[in-house]
Specification:
The structure holds 2 protein chains of 2 kinds. Chain A has helices at about 15-25, 40-45, 65-80, 95-105, 215-225, 235, 270-275, 305-320; strands at about 1-5, 5-10, 10, 35, 55-60, 85-90, 110-115, 115-120, 125-130, 135-140, 145-150, 165-170, 180-190, 200-205, 230, 260, 280-285, 295-300. By secondary structure, chain A is an alpha/beta fold. In chain A, the strands form 4 sheets. Chain A has a 7-stranded parallel sheet with strand order 7-11-6-1-4-5-12, sandwiched between helices. In chain A, helix 3 (about 65-80) packs across helix 4 (about 95-105) and helix 5 (about 215-225) runs parallel beside helix 8 (about 305-320). The longest helix of chain A is centred in the N-terminal third of the chain and has 20 residues, at about 65-80. Chain B is built from 6 helices and 13 strands. Chain B has helices spanning about 35-55, 70-75, 95-105, 125-135, 185-195, 230-245; strands spanning about 1-5, 10, 35, 55-65, 80-85, 110-115, 140-150, 150-160, 160-170, 170-175, 200, 210-215, 225. In chain B, the strands form 2 sheets. Chain B has a 9-stranded mixed sheet with strand order 9-8-7-10-6-1-4-5-11, with helices on both faces. In chain B, strand 7 (about 140-150) and strand 8 form a beta hairpin. Chain B is globular, with a radius of gyration of 22 Å. The complex binds flavin-adenine dinucleotide. Flavin-adenine dinucleotide (FAD) binds near residues 247, 269, 284, 286 and 302 of chain A.
Protein backbone atom coordinates (compact mmCIF):
# COMPACT_ATOMS: atom_id res chain seq x y z
CA UNK A 1 0.00 0.00 0.00
CA UNK A 2 1.24 3.50 -0.79
CA UNK A 3 0.19 6.47 1.35
CA UNK A 4 0.69 10.10 0.38
CA UNK A 5 1.83 11.78 3.61
CA UNK A 6 2.21 15.48 4.35
CA UNK A 7 4.64 17.03 6.83
CA UNK A 8 3.50 19.50 9.49
CA UNK A 9 5.48 21.84 11.71
CA UNK A 10 5.94 19.18 14.41
CA UNK A 11 5.89 15.93 12.44
CA UNK A 12 3.21 14.68 10.10
CA UNK A 13 -0.28 16.14 9.60
CA UNK A 14 -2.92 14.40 11.67
CA UNK A 15 -4.70 13.37 8.46
CA UNK A 16 -1.49 11.53 7.48
CA UNK A 17 -1.43 9.65 10.81
CA UNK A 18 -5.07 8.74 10.12
CA UNK A 19 -4.02 7.24 6.77
CA UNK A 20 -1.38 5.07 8.45
CA UNK A 21 -3.91 3.94 11.09
CA UNK A 22 -6.51 3.11 8.42
CA UNK A 23 -3.91 1.28 6.32
CA UNK A 24 -3.02 -1.05 9.21
CA UNK A 25 -6.58 -2.36 9.28
CA UNK A 26 -6.65 -3.30 5.57
CA UNK A 27 -2.97 -4.12 4.86
CA UNK A 28 -3.41 -7.87 5.39
CA UNK A 29 0.33 -8.41 5.79
CA UNK A 30 1.43 -6.29 2.83
CA UNK A 31 3.96 -3.50 3.36
CA UNK A 32 2.71 -0.03 4.28
CA UNK A 33 4.85 2.52 2.46
CA UNK A 34 4.62 6.27 2.81
CA UNK A 35 5.60 8.87 0.24
CA UNK A 36 6.37 12.36 1.46
CA UNK A 37 7.82 15.32 -0.40
CA UNK A 38 10.52 17.02 1.62
CA UNK A 39 10.41 15.82 5.23
CA UNK A 40 13.18 15.66 7.80
CA UNK A 41 14.06 12.59 9.85
CA UNK A 42 12.66 14.35 12.96
CA UNK A 43 9.35 14.90 11.20
CA UNK A 44 9.18 11.21 10.27
CA UNK A 45 10.08 10.01 13.77
CA UNK A 46 6.41 9.66 14.72
CA UNK A 47 5.53 7.44 11.71
CA UNK A 48 6.99 4.25 13.18
CA UNK A 49 4.80 4.56 16.28
CA UNK A 50 1.79 4.38 13.98
CA UNK A 51 3.18 1.37 12.12
CA UNK A 52 4.63 2.87 8.95
CA UNK A 53 7.12 0.28 7.73
CA UNK A 54 8.75 2.17 4.90
CA UNK A 55 8.90 5.78 3.76
CA UNK A 56 10.16 7.30 0.55
CA UNK A 57 11.25 10.92 0.95
CA UNK A 58 11.22 12.88 -2.29
CA UNK A 59 13.93 15.52 -2.54
CA UNK A 60 14.79 18.04 -5.22
CA UNK A 61 11.39 19.72 -5.43
CA UNK A 62 8.38 20.94 -3.42
CA UNK A 63 4.69 20.32 -4.14
CA UNK A 64 4.31 24.06 -4.88
CA UNK A 65 7.16 24.02 -7.40
CA UNK A 66 6.22 20.75 -9.04
CA UNK A 67 2.51 21.50 -9.44
CA UNK A 68 -0.34 19.00 -9.14
CA UNK A 69 0.40 17.08 -12.36
CA UNK A 70 4.03 16.40 -11.38
CA UNK A 71 3.08 15.42 -7.83
CA UNK A 72 0.60 12.94 -9.32
CA UNK A 73 3.34 11.64 -11.63
CA UNK A 74 5.79 11.13 -8.73
CA UNK A 75 3.18 9.20 -6.75
CA UNK A 76 2.00 7.13 -9.73
CA UNK A 77 5.56 6.26 -10.78
CA UNK A 78 6.37 5.12 -7.24
CA UNK A 79 3.16 3.07 -7.03
CA UNK A 80 4.06 1.36 -10.30
CA UNK A 81 7.62 0.63 -9.13
CA UNK A 82 6.31 -0.90 -5.92
CA UNK A 83 3.47 -2.80 -7.60
CA UNK A 84 1.02 -1.15 -5.20
CA UNK A 85 -2.63 -2.20 -5.28
CA UNK A 86 -3.88 0.55 -2.97
CA UNK A 87 -2.99 4.25 -2.89
CA UNK A 88 -4.36 6.37 -0.05
CA UNK A 89 -4.71 10.16 0.17
CA UNK A 90 -6.39 12.38 2.76
CA UNK A 91 -9.50 14.04 1.28
CA UNK A 92 -8.06 17.48 2.06
CA UNK A 93 -7.31 20.22 -0.48
CA UNK A 94 -4.12 18.48 -1.68
CA UNK A 95 -5.63 15.00 -1.86
CA UNK A 96 -8.72 16.20 -3.71
CA UNK A 97 -6.49 17.95 -6.25
CA UNK A 98 -3.87 15.26 -6.82
CA UNK A 99 -5.69 11.92 -6.30
CA UNK A 100 -7.89 12.06 -9.47
CA UNK A 101 -4.80 12.73 -11.60
CA UNK A 102 -2.90 9.90 -9.92
CA UNK A 103 -5.80 7.51 -10.61
CA UNK A 104 -5.86 8.38 -14.33
CA UNK A 105 -2.09 7.85 -14.57
CA UNK A 106 -2.38 4.45 -12.90
CA UNK A 107 -5.46 3.48 -14.95
CA UNK A 108 -7.00 2.95 -11.55
CA UNK A 109 -10.44 3.43 -10.07
CA UNK A 110 -10.82 6.27 -7.62
CA UNK A 111 -13.14 6.12 -4.61
CA UNK A 112 -13.18 9.56 -2.98
CA UNK A 113 -14.15 10.83 0.48
CA UNK A 114 -14.34 7.39 2.14
CA UNK A 115 -15.56 7.04 5.73
CA UNK A 116 -15.11 3.24 5.98
CA UNK A 117 -12.75 0.72 4.38
CA UNK A 118 -13.55 -3.02 4.45
CA UNK A 119 -11.58 -6.07 3.29
CA UNK A 120 -7.88 -6.13 2.47
CA UNK A 121 -5.69 -4.37 -0.08
CA UNK A 122 -6.49 -5.55 -3.59
CA UNK A 123 -10.12 -6.21 -2.61
CA UNK A 124 -11.22 -3.22 -0.57
CA UNK A 125 -14.82 -2.05 -0.47
CA UNK A 126 -15.31 1.53 0.66
CA UNK A 127 -18.27 3.44 2.05
CA UNK A 128 -18.78 7.12 1.28
CA UNK A 129 -21.51 9.65 2.05
CA UNK A 130 -23.53 10.84 -0.95
CA UNK A 131 -26.45 13.26 -1.40
CA UNK A 132 -25.16 15.57 1.30
CA UNK A 133 -24.90 12.73 3.82
CA UNK A 134 -28.47 11.59 3.26
CA UNK A 135 -27.27 8.21 1.97
CA UNK A 136 -24.15 6.04 1.97
CA UNK A 137 -22.77 4.31 -1.08
CA UNK A 138 -20.66 1.17 -0.84
CA UNK A 139 -18.28 0.79 -3.78
CA UNK A 140 -15.83 -1.77 -5.08
CA UNK A 141 -13.16 -1.34 -7.69
CA UNK A 142 -12.88 -3.19 -11.02
CA UNK A 143 -9.22 -2.27 -11.63
CA UNK A 144 -6.08 -3.96 -10.21
CA UNK A 145 -5.00 -0.73 -8.48
CA UNK A 146 -7.37 1.59 -6.61
CA UNK A 147 -6.97 5.12 -5.30
CA UNK A 148 -8.92 6.13 -2.19
CA UNK A 149 -9.21 9.48 -0.45
CA UNK A 150 -10.20 9.33 3.21
CA UNK A 151 -12.34 12.00 4.85
CA UNK A 152 -10.26 13.70 7.56
CA UNK A 153 -11.17 13.17 11.25
CA UNK A 154 -13.20 10.02 10.55
CA UNK A 155 -10.47 7.39 10.89
CA UNK A 156 -9.11 8.20 14.36
CA UNK A 157 -5.31 8.20 14.46
CA UNK A 158 -4.14 5.53 16.94
CA UNK A 159 -0.63 4.43 17.70
CA UNK A 160 0.16 0.82 16.80
CA UNK A 161 0.49 -1.88 19.48
CA UNK A 162 3.47 -3.04 17.48
CA UNK A 163 5.55 0.06 16.69
CA UNK A 164 8.17 -0.35 13.97
CA UNK A 165 11.36 1.35 12.86
CA UNK A 166 10.40 3.08 9.61
CA UNK A 167 12.91 2.31 6.86
CA UNK A 168 13.48 5.69 5.25
CA UNK A 169 15.02 6.13 1.82
CA UNK A 170 15.22 9.23 -0.26
CA UNK A 171 14.61 9.62 -3.95
CA UNK A 172 15.65 12.70 -5.88
CA UNK A 173 13.44 13.85 -8.70
CA UNK A 174 14.23 16.49 -11.26
CA UNK A 175 11.31 18.36 -12.68
CA UNK A 176 12.30 19.56 -16.11
CA UNK A 177 10.32 21.55 -18.62
CA UNK A 178 7.21 19.73 -17.60
CA UNK A 179 6.01 22.21 -14.96
CA UNK A 180 2.42 22.99 -15.83
CA UNK A 181 1.23 24.94 -12.82
CA UNK A 182 3.30 26.91 -10.37
CA UNK A 183 2.20 28.16 -7.01
CA UNK A 184 3.38 31.75 -6.70
CA UNK A 185 2.15 32.61 -3.25
CA UNK A 186 0.63 30.69 -0.44
CA UNK A 187 -1.08 32.52 2.37
CA UNK A 188 -2.55 31.17 5.54
CA UNK A 189 -5.47 33.43 6.25
CA UNK A 190 -6.34 32.41 9.74
CA UNK A 191 -2.92 32.37 11.29
CA UNK A 192 -2.98 31.40 14.92
CA UNK A 193 -6.54 30.10 14.76
CA UNK A 194 -7.54 26.60 13.81
CA UNK A 195 -9.20 25.83 10.49
CA UNK A 196 -12.72 24.44 11.00
CA UNK A 197 -12.05 21.55 8.64
CA UNK A 198 -9.05 20.39 10.66
CA UNK A 199 -10.23 21.11 14.19
CA UNK A 200 -11.08 18.39 16.67
CA UNK A 201 -13.83 20.51 18.22
CA UNK A 202 -15.95 23.04 16.32
CA UNK A 203 -18.29 25.57 17.91
CA UNK A 204 -20.54 27.19 15.31
CA UNK A 205 -22.86 30.16 15.56
CA UNK A 206 -25.92 31.03 13.50
CA UNK A 207 -28.50 33.74 13.11
CA UNK A 208 -29.61 33.11 16.70
CA UNK A 209 -26.59 35.19 17.80
CA UNK A 210 -28.49 38.22 16.44
CA UNK A 211 -25.44 40.41 15.61
CA UNK A 212 -21.74 39.97 14.71
CA UNK A 213 -20.55 41.50 17.99
CA UNK A 214 -22.20 38.67 19.92
CA UNK A 215 -19.90 36.07 18.35
CA UNK A 216 -17.53 36.53 21.29
CA UNK A 217 -19.92 34.13 23.09
CA UNK A 218 -19.14 31.48 20.47
CA UNK A 219 -15.42 32.30 20.46
CA UNK A 220 -15.23 32.07 24.24
CA UNK A 221 -16.76 28.59 24.26
CA UNK A 222 -14.47 27.53 21.39
CA UNK A 223 -11.45 28.78 23.35
CA UNK A 224 -12.55 27.00 26.52
CA UNK A 225 -12.85 23.77 24.53
CA UNK A 226 -9.69 24.34 22.47
CA UNK A 227 -11.74 24.30 19.27
CA UNK A 228 -12.33 26.33 16.13
CA UNK A 229 -15.20 28.70 15.31
CA UNK A 230 -17.64 27.81 12.53
CA UNK A 231 -20.68 29.59 11.12
CA UNK A 232 -23.92 28.98 9.26
CA UNK A 233 -24.40 30.40 5.79
CA UNK A 234 -26.98 32.90 7.08
CA UNK A 235 -24.34 34.72 9.14
CA UNK A 236 -21.68 34.43 6.43
CA UNK A 237 -24.05 35.91 3.84
CA UNK A 238 -24.86 38.68 6.31
CA UNK A 239 -21.14 39.48 6.45
CA UNK A 240 -20.85 38.68 10.17
CA UNK A 241 -18.27 35.94 9.64
CA UNK A 242 -15.78 35.08 6.84
CA UNK A 243 -16.67 32.42 4.26
CA UNK A 244 -13.78 30.20 5.36
CA UNK A 245 -15.73 29.51 8.57
CA UNK A 246 -18.91 28.41 6.78
CA UNK A 247 -19.94 24.85 7.49
CA UNK A 248 -22.31 23.09 5.10
CA UNK A 249 -22.99 22.17 1.55
CA UNK A 250 -21.52 25.38 0.11
CA UNK A 251 -18.92 25.69 2.85
CA UNK A 252 -16.63 23.25 4.60
CA UNK A 253 -17.31 19.64 5.47
CA UNK A 254 -16.27 18.96 9.03
CA UNK A 255 -16.30 15.81 11.13
CA UNK A 256 -14.84 16.78 14.49
CA UNK A 257 -15.05 14.76 17.68
CA UNK A 258 -17.58 17.33 18.93
CA UNK A 259 -19.67 19.85 17.00
CA UNK A 260 -21.58 22.49 18.98
CA UNK A 261 -24.31 24.36 17.07
CA UNK A 262 -25.38 27.60 18.75
CA UNK A 263 -28.46 29.42 17.44
CA UNK A 264 -28.44 27.33 14.25
CA UNK A 265 -31.73 25.91 12.97
CA UNK A 266 -30.22 22.81 11.29
CA UNK A 267 -31.21 23.30 7.63
CA UNK A 268 -30.32 20.28 5.46
CA UNK A 269 -27.61 22.30 3.73
CA UNK A 270 -25.99 22.96 7.09
CA UNK A 271 -26.34 19.32 8.17
CA UNK A 272 -24.60 18.29 4.93
CA UNK A 273 -21.39 19.76 6.30
CA UNK A 274 -21.42 18.41 9.85
CA UNK A 275 -23.60 15.31 10.13
CA UNK A 276 -20.62 12.96 10.31
CA UNK A 277 -19.36 14.66 13.50
CA UNK A 278 -18.91 12.14 16.30
CA UNK A 279 -20.85 14.05 18.97
CA UNK A 280 -23.32 16.81 18.11
CA UNK A 281 -24.47 19.34 20.70
CA UNK A 282 -27.20 21.88 19.98
CA UNK A 283 -28.23 25.02 21.82
CA UNK A 284 -31.41 26.58 20.45
CA UNK A 285 -34.38 28.32 22.03
CA UNK A 286 -36.84 26.55 19.73
CA UNK A 287 -37.43 23.00 21.00
CA UNK A 288 -38.70 22.01 17.53
CA UNK A 289 -35.59 23.22 15.68
CA UNK A 290 -34.45 20.45 13.27
CA UNK A 291 -30.92 20.56 14.71
CA UNK A 292 -32.20 18.70 17.82
CA UNK A 293 -33.14 15.68 15.64
CA UNK A 294 -29.47 15.10 14.80
CA UNK A 295 -28.11 16.10 18.22
CA UNK A 296 -26.67 13.78 20.85
CA UNK A 297 -27.06 16.44 23.53
CA UNK A 298 -29.12 19.60 23.53
CA UNK A 299 -30.13 22.55 25.61
CA UNK A 300 -33.42 24.23 24.82
CA UNK A 301 -32.52 27.76 25.81
CA UNK A 302 -31.33 31.23 24.92
CA UNK A 303 -27.71 31.39 23.69
CA UNK A 304 -27.22 34.70 25.51
CA UNK A 305 -28.06 33.02 28.79
CA UNK A 306 -26.68 29.49 28.23
CA UNK A 307 -23.35 30.13 26.46
CA UNK A 308 -21.66 32.21 29.20
CA UNK A 309 -22.69 29.68 31.87
CA UNK A 310 -21.58 26.71 29.81
CA UNK A 311 -18.25 28.35 28.99
CA UNK A 312 -17.60 29.11 32.67
CA UNK A 313 -18.42 25.56 33.77
CA UNK A 314 -16.26 24.00 31.06
CA UNK A 315 -13.35 26.34 31.86
CA UNK A 316 -13.66 25.38 35.53
CA UNK A 317 -13.63 21.69 34.66
CA UNK A 318 -10.69 21.82 32.25
CA UNK A 319 -8.57 23.96 34.60
CA UNK A 320 -9.05 21.31 37.30
CA UNK A 321 -7.77 18.52 35.08
CA UNK B 1 -11.64 31.97 -26.90
CA UNK B 2 -13.34 28.61 -27.13
CA UNK B 3 -14.91 27.81 -23.75
CA UNK B 4 -16.40 24.50 -22.61
CA UNK B 5 -18.54 24.53 -19.46
CA UNK B 6 -19.48 21.21 -17.81
CA UNK B 7 -22.68 21.09 -15.76
CA UNK B 8 -24.77 18.44 -14.04
CA UNK B 9 -28.33 17.67 -13.06
CA UNK B 10 -28.62 16.88 -9.34
CA UNK B 11 -31.37 16.30 -6.78
CA UNK B 12 -32.25 19.43 -4.84
CA UNK B 13 -30.73 19.03 -1.38
CA UNK B 14 -34.09 19.45 0.29
CA UNK B 15 -35.34 16.31 -1.54
CA UNK B 16 -35.98 13.22 0.51
CA UNK B 17 -33.69 10.42 -0.63
CA UNK B 18 -35.23 6.94 -0.97
CA UNK B 19 -33.17 3.94 -2.07
CA UNK B 20 -34.49 2.29 -5.24
CA UNK B 21 -35.62 -1.33 -5.63
CA UNK B 22 -32.12 -2.36 -6.82
CA UNK B 23 -30.64 -1.28 -3.48
CA UNK B 24 -27.90 0.59 -5.32
CA UNK B 25 -29.35 3.83 -6.66
CA UNK B 26 -31.92 6.38 -5.53
CA UNK B 27 -35.56 6.19 -6.45
CA UNK B 28 -36.09 9.32 -8.58
CA UNK B 29 -39.84 9.33 -7.87
CA UNK B 30 -40.81 12.65 -6.29
CA UNK B 31 -37.25 14.01 -6.35
CA UNK B 32 -36.83 17.54 -7.70
CA UNK B 33 -33.81 17.78 -10.01
CA UNK B 34 -31.97 21.09 -10.44
CA UNK B 35 -28.85 22.60 -11.98
CA UNK B 36 -25.96 21.86 -9.61
CA UNK B 37 -25.57 25.15 -7.65
CA UNK B 38 -21.77 25.40 -8.19
CA UNK B 39 -22.23 25.04 -11.94
CA UNK B 40 -23.91 28.45 -12.05
CA UNK B 41 -20.50 29.94 -11.17
CA UNK B 42 -18.93 27.89 -13.98
CA UNK B 43 -21.47 29.09 -16.59
CA UNK B 44 -21.13 32.71 -15.42
CA UNK B 45 -17.33 32.55 -15.63
CA UNK B 46 -17.57 31.16 -19.16
CA UNK B 47 -19.87 34.00 -20.19
CA UNK B 48 -17.59 36.63 -18.63
CA UNK B 49 -14.52 35.19 -20.38
CA UNK B 50 -16.41 35.37 -23.68
CA UNK B 51 -17.35 39.02 -23.01
CA UNK B 52 -13.69 39.85 -22.46
CA UNK B 53 -11.99 37.69 -25.07
CA UNK B 54 -14.69 36.89 -27.64
CA UNK B 55 -15.32 33.35 -28.84
CA UNK B 56 -18.02 30.85 -27.99
CA UNK B 57 -19.37 29.17 -24.88
CA UNK B 58 -20.46 25.55 -25.22
CA UNK B 59 -22.19 23.91 -22.28
CA UNK B 60 -22.16 20.14 -21.92
CA UNK B 61 -23.77 17.71 -19.55
CA UNK B 62 -23.36 13.95 -19.37
CA UNK B 63 -26.71 12.64 -18.22
CA UNK B 64 -30.21 11.47 -19.07
CA UNK B 65 -32.41 13.25 -21.66
CA UNK B 66 -34.18 15.08 -18.80
CA UNK B 67 -30.92 17.00 -18.27
CA UNK B 68 -31.83 19.08 -21.35
CA UNK B 69 -33.65 21.33 -18.90
CA UNK B 70 -30.39 22.58 -17.35
CA UNK B 71 -28.77 22.98 -20.78
CA UNK B 72 -31.70 25.25 -21.68
CA UNK B 73 -31.02 27.27 -18.56
CA UNK B 74 -27.38 27.67 -19.66
CA UNK B 75 -28.59 28.75 -23.11
CA UNK B 76 -30.95 31.26 -21.48
CA UNK B 77 -28.03 32.66 -19.46
CA UNK B 78 -26.13 33.23 -22.73
CA UNK B 79 -24.34 30.01 -23.66
CA UNK B 80 -23.99 29.69 -27.48
CA UNK B 81 -24.19 25.91 -27.81
CA UNK B 82 -25.46 23.02 -25.76
CA UNK B 83 -24.43 19.37 -25.89
CA UNK B 84 -26.12 16.43 -24.20
CA UNK B 85 -23.99 13.32 -23.86
CA UNK B 86 -26.90 10.94 -23.59
CA UNK B 87 -25.92 8.61 -20.77
CA UNK B 88 -28.63 7.59 -18.35
CA UNK B 89 -26.49 5.43 -16.07
CA UNK B 90 -23.31 7.44 -15.62
CA UNK B 91 -22.61 6.55 -12.01
CA UNK B 92 -18.85 6.23 -12.51
CA UNK B 93 -16.74 9.37 -12.67
CA UNK B 94 -14.14 7.86 -15.01
CA UNK B 95 -16.80 7.14 -17.64
CA UNK B 96 -18.12 10.71 -17.36
CA UNK B 97 -14.61 12.20 -17.48
CA UNK B 98 -13.87 10.14 -20.61
CA UNK B 99 -17.02 11.42 -22.34
CA UNK B 100 -16.04 15.03 -21.61
CA UNK B 101 -12.43 14.42 -22.69
CA UNK B 102 -13.69 12.88 -25.97
CA UNK B 103 -15.70 16.01 -26.70
CA UNK B 104 -12.73 18.23 -25.82
CA UNK B 105 -10.46 16.28 -28.16
CA UNK B 106 -12.86 16.96 -31.02
CA UNK B 107 -13.64 20.60 -30.28
CA UNK B 108 -10.27 21.77 -28.82
CA UNK B 109 -11.51 24.32 -26.27
CA UNK B 110 -9.01 26.78 -24.73
CA UNK B 111 -10.50 26.37 -21.30
CA UNK B 112 -12.83 23.84 -19.64
CA UNK B 113 -14.75 25.07 -16.60
CA UNK B 114 -16.46 22.91 -13.96
CA UNK B 115 -18.31 23.79 -10.77
CA UNK B 116 -16.21 22.97 -7.71
CA UNK B 117 -18.23 19.84 -6.98
CA UNK B 118 -21.60 18.33 -7.76
CA UNK B 119 -23.84 18.11 -4.73
CA UNK B 120 -25.06 14.57 -5.45
CA UNK B 121 -21.99 12.33 -5.41
CA UNK B 122 -19.63 15.09 -4.19
CA UNK B 123 -16.67 13.38 -5.80
CA UNK B 124 -14.70 16.49 -6.88
CA UNK B 125 -12.69 14.27 -9.21
CA UNK B 126 -13.83 15.25 -12.71
CA UNK B 127 -11.66 18.39 -13.27
CA UNK B 128 -8.44 16.56 -12.37
CA UNK B 129 -9.39 13.42 -14.31
CA UNK B 130 -10.32 15.31 -17.49
CA UNK B 131 -7.13 17.39 -17.26
CA UNK B 132 -4.97 14.30 -16.80
CA UNK B 133 -6.64 12.43 -19.69
CA UNK B 134 -6.00 15.45 -21.94
CA UNK B 135 -2.51 16.10 -20.52
CA UNK B 136 -3.55 19.64 -19.53
CA UNK B 137 -2.90 21.71 -16.40
CA UNK B 138 -5.74 22.19 -13.92
CA UNK B 139 -6.53 24.60 -11.14
CA UNK B 140 -9.34 23.56 -8.80
CA UNK B 141 -11.42 25.54 -6.25
CA UNK B 142 -10.75 28.82 -8.08
CA UNK B 143 -12.07 31.98 -6.40
CA UNK B 144 -10.43 34.55 -8.74
CA UNK B 145 -9.32 34.13 -12.36
CA UNK B 146 -7.54 36.29 -14.95
CA UNK B 147 -6.43 35.23 -18.41
CA UNK B 148 -4.05 37.41 -20.49
CA UNK B 149 -2.99 35.90 -23.78
CA UNK B 150 -2.29 32.31 -22.85
CA UNK B 151 -1.23 33.10 -19.27
CA UNK B 152 -3.67 32.11 -16.56
CA UNK B 153 -3.48 33.48 -13.02
CA UNK B 154 -5.84 31.95 -10.50
CA UNK B 155 -6.43 32.17 -6.80
CA UNK B 156 -7.56 28.91 -5.21
CA UNK B 157 -8.87 27.97 -1.79
CA UNK B 158 -6.73 25.55 0.16
CA UNK B 159 -7.19 24.27 3.73
CA UNK B 160 -6.73 27.24 6.01
CA UNK B 161 -5.78 29.71 3.29
CA UNK B 162 -5.40 30.62 -0.34
CA UNK B 163 -2.86 29.94 -3.04
CA UNK B 164 -2.08 31.98 -6.11
CA UNK B 165 -1.27 29.79 -9.10
CA UNK B 166 -0.08 30.54 -12.64
CA UNK B 167 -0.48 28.27 -15.62
CA UNK B 168 -1.12 28.41 -19.36
CA UNK B 169 -3.95 27.65 -21.77
CA UNK B 170 -5.41 25.25 -22.56
CA UNK B 171 -6.38 24.38 -19.01
CA UNK B 172 -9.13 23.05 -16.74
CA UNK B 173 -10.64 25.23 -14.00
CA UNK B 174 -13.11 24.41 -11.24
CA UNK B 175 -15.19 27.29 -9.89
CA UNK B 176 -15.52 27.96 -6.17
CA UNK B 177 -18.37 30.00 -4.74
CA UNK B 178 -17.40 33.66 -4.83
CA UNK B 179 -15.67 33.50 -8.22
CA UNK B 180 -18.47 35.68 -9.62
CA UNK B 181 -22.12 36.59 -9.15
CA UNK B 182 -24.14 34.30 -11.47
CA UNK B 183 -26.77 36.13 -13.54
CA UNK B 184 -30.43 35.20 -13.58
CA UNK B 185 -31.73 34.42 -17.06
CA UNK B 186 -34.42 36.86 -18.24
CA UNK B 187 -37.88 35.53 -19.02
CA UNK B 188 -37.74 36.25 -22.80
CA UNK B 189 -34.35 34.46 -22.94
CA UNK B 190 -35.79 31.49 -21.07
CA UNK B 191 -38.59 31.31 -23.66
CA UNK B 192 -36.15 31.64 -26.57
CA UNK B 193 -33.81 28.99 -25.14
CA UNK B 194 -36.58 26.40 -25.31
CA UNK B 195 -36.43 26.38 -29.11
CA UNK B 196 -32.62 26.41 -29.37
CA UNK B 197 -31.02 23.16 -30.55
CA UNK B 198 -29.32 20.79 -28.13
CA UNK B 199 -26.76 18.57 -29.88
CA UNK B 200 -26.72 14.94 -28.75
CA UNK B 201 -23.74 12.62 -28.51
CA UNK B 202 -23.19 9.07 -27.41
CA UNK B 203 -21.08 8.48 -24.31
CA UNK B 204 -17.44 7.38 -24.36
CA UNK B 205 -16.81 3.66 -24.69
CA UNK B 206 -14.62 3.78 -21.56
CA UNK B 207 -15.73 1.19 -19.04
CA UNK B 208 -16.60 2.16 -15.49
CA UNK B 209 -13.86 1.44 -12.97
CA UNK B 210 -16.01 1.24 -9.88
CA UNK B 211 -19.07 -0.85 -9.10
CA UNK B 212 -21.81 0.05 -6.63
CA UNK B 213 -22.20 -2.68 -4.03
CA UNK B 214 -25.10 -1.04 -2.29
CA UNK B 215 -26.69 2.14 -1.02
CA UNK B 216 -28.07 2.61 2.46
CA UNK B 217 -29.65 5.40 4.45
CA UNK B 218 -27.88 6.54 7.61
CA UNK B 219 -29.18 4.96 10.77
CA UNK B 220 -29.56 7.83 13.17
CA UNK B 221 -27.66 6.65 16.21
CA UNK B 222 -27.85 10.01 17.91
CA UNK B 223 -28.53 9.98 21.63
CA UNK B 224 -31.09 12.82 21.51
CA UNK B 225 -30.66 13.75 25.17
CA UNK B 226 -32.33 17.16 25.12
CA UNK B 227 -32.26 19.16 28.34
CA UNK B 228 -33.71 22.44 29.60
CA UNK B 229 -31.78 25.60 30.42
CA UNK B 230 -31.69 25.53 34.23
CA UNK B 231 -28.43 25.65 36.15
CA UNK B 232 -28.87 21.93 36.90
CA UNK B 233 -29.43 21.12 33.23
CA UNK B 234 -26.26 22.93 32.18
CA UNK B 235 -24.32 21.10 34.92
CA UNK B 236 -25.77 17.84 33.61
CA UNK B 237 -24.69 18.66 30.04
CA UNK B 238 -21.13 19.30 31.23
CA UNK B 239 -21.18 16.04 33.18
CA UNK B 240 -22.45 14.10 30.14
CA UNK B 241 -19.80 15.63 27.89
CA UNK B 242 -17.12 14.80 30.44
CA UNK B 243 -18.16 11.37 31.70
CA UNK B 244 -20.35 9.85 28.98
CA UNK B 245 -19.08 11.33 25.70
CA UNK B 246 -15.58 11.93 27.13
CA UNK B 247 -15.05 14.88 24.80
CA UNK B 248 -14.28 17.47 27.50
C1 LIG C 1 -28.04 25.86 -2.40
C2 LIG C 1 -28.00 26.21 -0.93
C3 LIG C 1 -26.81 25.99 -0.25
C4 LIG C 1 -26.72 26.29 1.12
N1 LIG C 1 -25.54 26.03 1.77
C5 LIG C 1 -25.46 26.25 3.10
C6 LIG C 1 -24.26 25.97 3.84
O1 LIG C 1 -23.23 25.58 3.29
N2 LIG C 1 -24.25 26.16 5.18
C7 LIG C 1 -25.35 26.63 5.86
O2 LIG C 1 -25.26 26.78 7.09
N3 LIG C 1 -26.47 26.93 5.20
C8 LIG C 1 -26.55 26.77 3.83
N4 LIG C 1 -27.69 27.11 3.18
C9 LIG C 1 -28.71 27.90 3.90
C10 LIG C 1 -29.62 27.08 4.78
O3 LIG C 1 -30.71 26.66 4.02
C11 LIG C 1 -30.14 27.95 5.96
O4 LIG C 1 -30.76 29.10 5.43
C12 LIG C 1 -29.06 28.40 6.94
O5 LIG C 1 -28.28 27.30 7.34
C13 LIG C 1 -29.71 29.02 8.15
O6 LIG C 1 -28.77 29.53 9.04
P1 LIG C 1 -29.10 29.66 10.60
O7 LIG C 1 -29.42 28.33 11.13
O8 LIG C 1 -27.98 30.43 11.20
O9 LIG C 1 -30.35 30.65 10.60
P2 LIG C 1 -31.90 30.36 10.87
O10 LIG C 1 -32.40 29.27 10.03
O11 LIG C 1 -32.53 31.67 10.82
O12 LIG C 1 -31.90 29.80 12.35
C14 LIG C 1 -31.62 30.53 13.48
C15 LIG C 1 -31.92 29.66 14.67
O13 LIG C 1 -31.53 30.33 15.85
C16 LIG C 1 -32.50 30.08 16.84
N5 LIG C 1 -32.45 31.23 17.76
C17 LIG C 1 -32.85 32.51 17.56
N6 LIG C 1 -32.57 33.27 18.62
C18 LIG C 1 -32.00 32.48 19.54
C19 LIG C 1 -31.50 32.67 20.85
N7 LIG C 1 -31.52 33.88 21.42
N8 LIG C 1 -31.00 31.61 21.51
C20 LIG C 1 -30.97 30.38 20.94
N9 LIG C 1 -31.42 30.15 19.69
C21 LIG C 1 -31.93 31.17 19.00
C22 LIG C 1 -33.81 29.96 16.12
O14 LIG C 1 -34.70 29.16 16.88
C23 LIG C 1 -33.37 29.27 14.83
O15 LIG C 1 -33.48 27.85 14.95
C24 LIG C 1 -27.82 26.83 1.81
C25 LIG C 1 -29.01 27.05 1.11
C26 LIG C 1 -29.12 26.76 -0.23
C27 LIG C 1 -30.41 27.00 -0.95
Amino acid sequence: MLLYLEPSSNGLKRSSLELITAARAVAGGSTITGLVIGATEEQLAVAGEYGLQECIVITGTTPQQAGNSNVAKIIADTATELGTKTVLFAANSTGKDVAPRTAVRLQAAIIPDCVELHGTTGAIEAVRPVFAGKAFQRLSSTTPTTVFTLRPNVFTAKKSDAPVQTAVRSKTVTIGADVRTTVVTNTTLNQGSLDVAEADIVVSGGRGLKAPEHFNLVEDLANALGGAVGASRAVVDAGWRPHREQVGQTGKTVSPTMYVACGISGAVQHLAGMSSSKIIVAINKDKDAPIFKVADYGIVGDVFDVLPKLTAKISALTSHN
Amino acid sequence: MNILVCISLVPDTTSKIVVGADGKTINPQGVKFILNPYDEFAIEEGLQLKQKHGGTVTTVTVGPPTAKEILQRALAMGSDNAVLVNDSNCADSFAVASSIADLAKETSPDVIIFGRQSIDYDSLVLPGMVAEILGWPSVTMVSALTIEGTTVTAERDIDGGKESVTTTLPCVISAQKGLNEPRYPKLPDIMKAKSKPVAERTPSAAAARTAVVGMTLPDSKRLNKILGDSEADINELVRLLHEEAKVV
